[in-house]
Amino acid sequence: MTPSDAARQDAGPAGGGPGREAGPPPRLSHREVVTVLSGLMLGMFLGALDQTVVSSALRTVADDLHGLTSQAWVTTAYLVTGTIATPLYGKLSDIHGRRPVYVWAIALFAAGSLLCGCATSIHQLAAFRALQGLGGGGLMSLAMTVVADITSPRQRGRYQGWFMAVFAGSSIVGPVVGGLLAGSDTLLGVTGWRWIFLLNLPLAALALGVIVRVLRRLPHRPVRHRLDYGGALLLAAGVVPLLVVAEQGRGWGWTSPAALVLYATGAAGLAGFVAVERRKGAAALLPLRLFGVRSFRLGTLLHFLVGAGMFGATVTLPLYLQIARGLSPTEAGLAMLPTTAANVAVTLTVGRLLVRTGRPKPPLVLGIGSFTVAMAVFATLRVDSPLWHVWAGMLFMGAGLGAALQTMTTLAQSEVPRADMGAATASVNFFRSNGGTAGTAVFLSVLFSAAGGRIAERLGDALEDAPTRRLAAEPENARALSGVLRPDGGVNLEDSAFLRTLSPRLARPFLEGWVDALQAVFLTGAALMLAALVVALSRVPDVELSDT
């Protein structure tokens, strides 16, 4: 019997009402599961590749569009819209089925990619990244939902481990491809970095063809709910202002009138969202009753904390390699390979371990602990640290994420009713994306808030030396410094390209101040991961997952 035959035999009436628990879906064979996964992994690779390609080339893109200090918008815009869209995808897929919703996600992602490749300013690029995020928000959450549909809690680690390996694999290909494209002046008459986005178009077409074919094998039991538009609008009204102030607070001032207005707007939006979701009950965009499930509650909290650290480190570590160490985008991408190797190895190992033992807590604790150590190692980096020092931190980071990410997802799904699986899995990804958005904004805010003062201090000390002052007065160095040093003694960090022409002796204070600021960023990340470790150790129960 094929999966579709089994679905027709077992599904019964469509829907079942808002509060009715759907029966278990037909159990697929390993071969049938792999067939479905082939399509899902291609869609996930599409979204994951885009994130890693962009991160490795962001400095080049920002320099070309003259917006280094505004680069956070390029990452934050994608994460904001992806965060808001993720719960919508979960509920839409529960109502209409996984396949049509997945098709729309890929189409939106492709349209955003095309526009990103045509952007002419950093803010225009950020706007198009927001459209791209509307599609990207569904690529990973829908894949995880489908796996939960067709496997038992104990078996999920095995298959979700494959997803994590795909995500890690994209981090091998992404930085290298991104670096090569960003390092090319033009390719077929188009600026090299623009191909980072245009490359998504043929990949999206391929993913669309495979998804349409393989997800026909997936049974669907529709849920008779109307989409919670009011909840979606209030969620956006609550989350977006808080994320904006997190990114812009360093420039406005954390207690400025604009920041205070956004705090109030966000708080009002979230309060309204909670009130609406309580009234909606089972039809809610994010059913509040799910937070009564301990495993779900803990899983979402850990996803938020670890997501903040993961995305924050992913954005700031390439900046250390490219600015402080002077690596090209391609070299920086290749230098990140230890993270990927450790991630893939640990992900596959932990997936098999979960199938054998059914106990997610041990790898979860070890994973978050390893990531905490990685942040501490990064916080000790200096301008002249050997590469093995960086790689040591990368190994801990890759191993930690490989062990933690899949176990957090499995934990959050383990006790959720099947009828709510789409909304629950989307909620998990919502909290991870929300954490990633906040983490990226906060990490970059801390970085640029600290960098200006640290660089000015280091440069002031250097210029007390007479030979250094004479060096700074030389025509070539004076030209480079004229666009960087402000009349008030501050430093313009919009463009780091001047470091390539500045004398190494004069560049040293800039690099040392930059690394001082990065150390503050990674210490913040270490404190955040330590908090996550305390939660995992003290609150997560050491239980065995069900195999049904």
Automatic annotation (TrEMBL):
<feature type="transmembrane region" description="Helical">
    <location>
        <begin position="362"/>
        <end position="381"/>
    </location>
</feature>
<feature type="transmembrane region" description="Helical">
    <location>
        <begin position="514"/>
        <end position="537"/>
    </location>
</feature>
<feature type="transmembrane region" description="Helical">
    <location>
        <begin position="101"/>
        <end position="122"/>
    </location>
</feature>
<keyword id="KW-1003">Cell membrane</keyword>
<feature type="transmembrane region" description="Helical">
    <location>
        <begin position="128"/>
        <end position="150"/>
    </location>
</feature>
<dbReference type="GO" id="GO:0005886">
    <property type="term" value="C:plasma membrane"/>
</dbReference>
<keyword id="KW-0472">Membrane</keyword>
<dbReference type="Pfam" id="PF07690">
    <property type="entry name" value="MFS_1"/>
</dbReference>
<protein>
    <submittedName>
        <fullName>MFS transporter</fullName>
    </submittedName>
</protein>
<feature type="transmembrane region" description="Helical">
    <location>
        <begin position="387"/>
        <end position="405"/>
    </location>
</feature>
<feature type="transmembrane region" description="Helical">
    <location>
        <begin position="195"/>
        <end position="215"/>
    </location>
</feature>
<feature type="transmembrane region" description="Helical">
    <location>
        <begin position="227"/>
        <end position="246"/>
    </location>
</feature>
<feature type="transmembrane region" description="Helical">
    <location>
        <begin position="162"/>
        <end position="183"/>
    </location>
</feature>
<dbReference type="InterPro" id="IPR020846">
    <property type="entry name" value="MFS_dom"/>
</dbReference>
<feature type="region of interest" description="Disordered">
    <location>
        <begin position="1"/>
        <end position="28"/>
    </location>
</feature>
<feature type="transmembrane region" description="Helical">
    <location>
        <begin position="258"/>
        <end position="276"/>
    </location>
</feature>
<feature type="transmembrane region" description="Helical">
    <location>
        <begin position="333"/>
        <end position="355"/>
    </location>
</feature>
<dbReference type="GO" id="GO:0022857">
    <property type="term" value="F:transmembrane transporter activity"/>
</dbReference>
<feature type="transmembrane region" description="Helical">
    <location>
        <begin position="33"/>
        <end position="58"/>
    </location>
</feature>
<dbReference type="InterPro" id="IPR036259">
    <property type="entry name" value="MFS_trans_sf"/>
</dbReference>
<dbReference type="InterPro" id="IPR011701">
    <property type="entry name" value="MFS"/>
</dbReference>
<keyword id="KW-1133">Transmembrane helix</keyword>
<feature type="transmembrane region" description="Helical">
    <location>
        <begin position="70"/>
        <end position="89"/>
    </location>
</feature>
<feature type="domain" description="Major facilitator superfamily (MFS) profile">
    <location>
        <begin position="36"/>
        <end position="544"/>
    </location>
</feature>
<feature type="transmembrane region" description="Helical">
    <location>
        <begin position="296"/>
        <end position="321"/>
    </location>
</feature>
<dbReference type="InterPro" id="IPR004638">
    <property type="entry name" value="EmrB-like"/>
</dbReference>
<comment type="similarity">
    <text>Belongs to the major facilitator superfamily. TCR/Tet family.</text>
</comment>
<keyword id="KW-0812">Transmembrane</keyword>
<keyword id="KW-0813">Transport</keyword>
